[in-house]
Amino acid sequence: MPSILDDIVAAKRLELAEAMQAVSYADVEHAAAEQPRPLNLSGALTSGGIRLIAEVKKASPSRGLLSPNFDPVHLAHTYVSNGAAAISCLTDPRFQGELAHLSSIKQSGASGRAPVIRKDFIFDPYQVYEARAAVPTASS
């Protein structure tokens, strides 16, 4: 009997195959290379005192919808304005996340003030390039 992790990996492999069919590996790698240099995540987290990574998350598989009026840009700006050292943005569909949330945070300017981390099940370099192409500030 497959575990929940097996199910997640199988679903992510399908998502990855679809993404790679839509945008080639070479194209996503090129798009990532065109982005500005990322902010220093380790520097942001070790600059003294308590450092917080604030999470942009619309829903949870166990708790359902967490934010009915979800606005990732507003959340990111609020977190950064209140001292967050970095922003973690869920892009996994099980959390109602998507890469567009990363892009909107980047375009809003919040990503220029704090590193933004793509939070997802990452197991292929394509996904790292995809995150960098969507948001040029950090990936995990």
From TrEMBL:
Alphabetical list of PROSITE patterns matching this protein: IGPS
Keywords for the protein's UniProt record, in alphabetical order: Amino-acid biosynthesis, Aromatic amino acid biosynthesis, Decarboxylase, Lyase, Tryptophan biosynthesis
Pfam families for this protein: IGPS (PF00218)
EC number: 4.1.1.48
Enzyme class: lyase
Pathway where this protein functions: Amino-acid biosynthesis; L-tryptophan biosynthesis; L-tryptophan from chorismate: step 4/5
Ranges of residues in domain Indole-3-glycerol phosphate synthase: 5-134
Catalytic reaction list: 1-(2-carboxyphenylamino)-1-deoxy-D-ribulose 5-phosphate + H(+) = (1S,2R)-1-C-(indol-3-yl)glycerol 3-phosphate + CO2 + H2O
Example GO biological process: L-tryptophan biosynthetic process
Top-level taxon in the UniProt lineage: Eukaryota
Keyword Lyase applies: yes
Molecular function as annotated in GO: indole-3-glycerol-phosphate synthase activity; phosphoribosylanthranilate isomerase activity
Protein name, per record: indole-3-glycerol-phosphate synthase
